[in-house]
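Q: What would this chain look like folded?
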Amino acid sequence: MKDYLLEIGVEELPARYINSAMDQLEESFIKLLNENKLAYKEIIQYSTPRRLSLLIKDLQGDLSDDLVEIKGPSAKIAYDDQGNPSKALQGFMKSQGLSDQDIEVRDNYIYGKKLLKAKTIEEIFSASIPAIIKAINFPKNMKWAGKNIKFSRPIRWLVSLYGSQVLPIDLEGISCSNVTKGHRFLGSDHIVIEEPSAYEKTLRENYVIVSHKERLNIIKREANKLAKEISGEIIEDPDLLNELTNITEYPTPILGSIKEEYLELPNIVITTSMKEHLRFIPIYKDSQNLLPYFVSIVNGTDAHKDVIIKGNEKVLSARLEDAKFFYREDLATDFVGLKEKLTGITYHEKLGSMKTRVDRIEELVEKIGDQLDIAKESKDQVKRAAQLSKNDLLTHMVDEFSELQGIMGEIYAKKAGEESLVAEAISAQYKPRFYGDDLPETTVGSILSIGEKLDALAGMFAIGMIPTGSQDPFGLRRSALGIINIIRKNNWRLSLKEAIKDALFIYVEENSLVFDYESVSKEIYDFFLSRIKVILLDQGVRYDLVDAIIGTQDEDIYKIFKKAQDLKEWFEEADRSKEVETFARLNNIAVKAQSTDFDPEIFNDYEKALYITFTNVKENIETSLGELDYKEILEAALSLQVPINNFLDNVLVFDEDENLKNNRLGLLARINNFIHTIIDFSKIVM
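A: My prediction, written as C-alpha cells:
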C-alpha cells in the first residue's frame, strides 16, 4: 500500500471559499474510493490560499478481478419452441458480452457469469479526478486563458503522486507532475515532492504550512502569548481566526498599538475598524474594555517586523482618527430630530422614502402588539423605537461604517436619553443579521424586528420583487426565517396571515400602492410556509408529514412547529398504517362534497353513530386545543376510526336519492374538514 497526494495549485482563493471546497473534495474522493472498493487508512486535508490538497494514507494498490453474476430474462422467454436462444436472450448475452458457456438456467431465470477485469489506480483516478475538480462548487467562478473550465481562481498546476509515481491527470492541459510551489515570496517556485509522505515537511522548508489546523493553532497560541505580555487577553472570534488562517501560508503574529485617546470611541467602532477592515485581532483588558493594542498576522517571517508594525499602526490610526471626528460630530447633532430628514433617503423608488418606511413600521408594530396583547408600556416603547429606528442612517458614523447600522442607533439613542429598551430595540431590529446570529432578547426588540422585516417582505412582494432561484438581493429569505425564529423563540401565538394583511394594508394607506391584495397576501404566506418546510425537514421531520402539516394551512407558526414535533413522535411510536388508511379513505370521498351541510333527522343508525361520536370528539378536542398536545388530540380523533369504517362499509354514500347522497357527503366533509385542521392524512405515505 502507498500514499496518494493530490494538490490543486491555484492563484489566491477567497478565504471564505476554502473550507467548503475542501469538504467537497474529500466527499467526492470518499465516494470514488467506496464505489471502486479501494481500501485506505485515512484522508487528510491540506489547504492554503494557493492550494487545495488531499493525502490518502495507505491506499490499496492492485485490485483483483471480480467474477459477478448477472440476472437475465426468465427461462420462459429465453428460448423458442426449438430450444434456440430467443431475441431476448440474444440481446442479454450481447449487452453483457456473454457466450453460451457463461450462462445457466436457475430458478426459472437465466443467469450469466462475467469476469470484470480490475482497473488500476491510474485508470480510475485519471478518468475520475478531472470531473471531481470541475464539480467543486464555489459561490462565484471564473474562466481563464481560453480553457473550458470554471473555477474560483485559475488553476496553475497539479500534483498527482501515488508513492513515487506521478499519476497523470488531463485537465485542460494544466501541468500535472510532482512539482509544486512554495511561499510566493519566501519559497522556491520549483519544489519536487519525492513522495506524498514528504509533502508537509518539504513545503514547510519553503515557508508553507499546509495544515489548516496547525496554522490556526499558531495564530491562536502566539496571539494569546503577545496579549499576556501586556496583561491582556484575546476574545476569540472564530470567523476572524478562520479567515486569517485561510489568507496566510506561514502566519506570524506581531503586536501593534494605538493611541489611548481612541479608546473614548465605542468598542464596536474600534473592533470593526480592526477586524472587518484590517483583519487585526483586538486585545482586551477584560470582557468589556479594550487595551490600546492589537495583533496583526504577517504572511511570512517577522523580518522587517518594525516596518510592518509601523505601517499597520498608521493605517489603523487614520481610520480611528476619522471615526473619532465622525463620532464627535454625531454627538453634537440632535439624534431624535433626524427622523424628518429621512424624507431625503429613498427606500425604493416604488415604495417611497425612508421616512415613509419608518411611519409604516410604526403603524405595523402597533398592530402586532395589539395581536400579541402586550402591555401599554411595551407598546409605547416599541412605537418609540420604530420612530427612531432609521435615524442613524443620517449619521456620519454609519455613512462611513455601514455595517454599524442599528448598532450606532442604539448608542446614539442612549446618549440622547432614550430608555434602554427603546435604544436596544434599534439595534435588535436587524437581528438575526446572518445565519446562526443571536435573536432579539427583549419583547420590544423582537416586535420591532418582526415589523421591520415584514414591511420589507410586504413591499417587495407587492411590487413583484420576489426571490427566484439563488437571486435574493433584498435578503427576503433571511427576513422570513428571522421572523419565524423570533416567533418560535418567544412562543408567540401570532396569526401570520393577519400580520401579512396588516402590512399590505398599510402600504395601501400610506403609499396608495396598487396591487392584487389577496394574491400578494397568499404569495407571502406561501413564501413563509416554504421556509418553515425547509426548517422542519432539517429537523428530521418526514417529508410526507411536513406536507401533511403544511397542508392544514395553519397560520400560527408556534402551533405548526409544536404540531410537527408531537406528530413526529406519534408516528414513531407505533405503526399508524390503519389509522392513515381510514382517514385517507374518508378524505377521498369527502372531497367530492359540494357543501358541509346535512340534516341529522334523516340519518340511519350508522350515520347517527358517526355523528354522535364526531360531536363528542370535536368537543373534547376543541377543549384540549389550548394545551396544544397534538398526540392527545390525535388519540382522541382515533375514536372516529371505527364509526367511520362502519359507515363506509355499510352505507351507500352515492345513493340514487340526491338528498341522501348530499346529506351523507355533507357529514363526511364536515368531519374531514375538522380532521384537516389537525393533519392532512391524504399526504401521508405508508
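The radius of gyration is 34 Å.
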